[in-house]
Fold each of these.
Amino acid sequence: MGKLYAMTGGATGIGASLKEKLRERGDTVIVVDLRDADINADLSTALGRQAAIEGIRKMAPDGLDGFIACAGLPPVAKPLSLITKVNYFGATVLIEGLADLVAMKKGAIVAVGSNSASMPGLDEDHIQALLSGDEEHSSALVEALDGHNAYAGSKNALIRWIRRKCPALMGEGVRMNVVAPGMTGTPLTEKVFEDADFGAAMTEFQKSIPYGDMATPDMIADTMLFLLDPASRYVCGAVLFVDGGHDALLRPDGF
Ligand SMILES: NC(=O)c1ccc[n+]([C@@H]2O[C@H](COP(=O)([O-])OP(=O)(O)OC[C@H]3O[C@@H](n4cnc5c(N)ncnc54)[C@H](O)[C@@H]3O)[C@@H](O)[C@H]2O)c1
């Protein structure tokens, strides 16, 4: 029998690829997104997050085999506080609100981080404000940063939040892991390439990927399928880089 998953950010890009793969093999996926979703909700607001949690709870009263927090905004999103609100709070609040459903089926949670999360020079005050759960303060702090710091900081904090939470959740039978994609060909990446400030750097960054090119969304989705599958039943708290060797190139000793 097919499994039941819920996810955010399934309308386009990496999330859409995962959704299609799950549905093709007979699983049911409840998608939360701004549009083209089973539950249309804006995860940048507390009301939207609540609506998403309530909507999923109604559609999965007997539990979930997995939850995937995939929705995200790029470093070029404006105002920068939107990045904080969607990438960090849109993921952590939903995981908090749905973990008991995943525990009912001893399922798996996968969050989408980024290989930028471990890059040097991130603003630790911003990250600490996120980890303290203070949305107002972290949203104020982020406006003084650049887009890279805002984006990579949101993913750094998300990964640290996940790793802090995952031992307790493992005790309830829920595995939680992070997939950390490198540059991937999606609408999000197109927006960054089109940006006057980021475009040229992105072209150089792309050239330096050891694989030779950026990922396609299905390359990331295939790894997410593994993290949702019993084949990864002993994997918990992992940050799995799926970046064609880019993190290993930039931080060979950082493990
Ligand atoms: N593309 C890359 O190079 C790359 C690299 C590392 C990490 N990521 C991460 O992968 C995830 C998926 O991104 P993608 O590249 O597929 O981009 P994408 O833009 O195709 O997908 C992001 C999805 O999130 C949704 N979303 C955005 N704001 C939302 C909001 N307020 N409420 C609800 N949904 C919202 C979008 O509508 C979209 O469906 C993101 O978390 C992103 O940060 C992407």
Amino acid sequence: MRHRIAVIGGGPAGLTFARVLHRLDHPVTVLERDPAPDARPPGGTLDLHERMGQLALSMAGLLAEFQALSRPEGQAMRILDTDGTVLRDWQPRPDDRANPEIDRGQLRDLLLGSLDVQWGRGVTEVVPETRDGVLVHFADGRQETFDLVVGADGAWSRVRPAVSSATPHYTGVTLVETSLDDVDTRHPDLARLIGDGSMAVYGVNRALVAQRNSGGHVKVYAQFRAPLDWHTNLDRHMGLDSVDVEAVRSGLLALFDGWAAPVLDLLRHGTAFVHRPLYVLPVSHTWAHVPGVTLLGDAAHLMPPLGVGANLAMLEGAELAESVAAAPGPGDLDEAVRAFEEQMWARAGRWANIATAGLERLVSPDPTEALALFDEVQPS
Ligand SMILES: Cc1cc2nc3c(=O)[nH]c(=O)nc-3n(C[C@H](O)[C@H](O)[C@H](O)COP(=O)(O)OP(=O)(O)OC[C@H]3O[C@@H](n4cnc5c(N)ncnc54)[C@H](O)[C@@H]3O)c2cc1C
């Protein structure tokens, strides 16, 4: 039976879901708020794990293309202390394909392929159990009904209120993201410092992480514990929403005062700054099943970014797609969604606990905690 299925959101969760359904020859409507695929910068690099993101791509028939695009050497990880001493310098084996990196933009284009996404279709509300099915309201005032609406619309989901009253709360940790372009030619010293993958420096309640993307692009994340309004306290002239890049830069340099000069060059040469306070949903977020509506990815289980959110989102998207495509009738569709939710909640709950504990140790009053965590998880 051909169910009327809509997925709200064209991120890793929504596109993987749609792509697997497409492969199984089941129609799906993909509704994305952004007006076009390149309407905003796609973000940094993602490492896709063999048994999560890569498994999802294999279910979508895209693993070989991923392998051609991804960067196994990007798994390299270097840790420095705040005076610039290298404490760990881990290199993957040449054949290591456990967690290769891919730019988010490349992943999005790979998943998009020939999918027919409806761009510029922001959803405002989802009303379950109307006479004709689940009713979706759009920002432009239009409405449509479906048999199943899948909320893959991220942290601030507009679908989530149809199943749950949970809202994200601030973790107490903020990221400020900046970028360096063409690092190998314009900043060769920094290129050497970062290496082929990621470099991290951990201090008291703060960290600086630099990650190589493709084409000599580097994303730098300044991470620190602070109240949400930290920038107004720090300097009354510094507003992150303002375009005063130099004020933001000097505010950040003051926060990391005393760190080694080559490390601080990551902030000195950064081009623009993006404020990303880290929000999370309650660990083990679940809800009473609502027929016709479910959630995937960050909409269901927003957690600290410790390298697993996109992986879970993609695996869930692929698994739900296979289950609903195999469900012959309306009752089977509902049973398939229920079973999927139970499996998602159990797995995401385990990862949310790990990611929450991980964030406590990575941005910690005791910087040796970050090193200990690295030693626990990194293969020797
Ligand atoms: C700095 C940082 C680094 C990270 N690094 C990693 C990593 O290395 N590995 C990893 O696995 N995870 C990582 N994550 C986590 C990862 O980014 C998320 O878990 C992942 O993007 C979740 O995918 P998603 O599809 O659920 O949501 P999103 O990626 O947020 O996509 C949601 C989509 O829905 C659209 N949308 C939103 N609202 C509406 C609406 N009302 N109507 C229609 N469309 C809407 C949005 O425009 C967007 O396209 C990182 C996160 C951060 C912040």
Amino acid sequence: MSETTIKVRNAGPLLVTGSFTITDADGNVFGLAGRTQVALCRCGQSEQKPFCDGSHRGAGFDSVCPARDLPPPAPKG
Ligand code: FES
């Protein structure tokens, strides 16, 4: 089984590649018709959320997120 990767595209969507399942808030599964890569909107402008429909290009969305290390998670209390 291939590793799932998520690529944060500059001024664009999250590209999810590999083996994955996407569900709605109720746990219902989106049918992906065999796709092994999807683009998830992170600009908030897509008419096809959670998927990217290219609207970020005309929306002036600008975001660059270089990879970095997160701090340790807060302890659960
Ligand atoms: S990131 Fe593409 S439409 Fe939002």
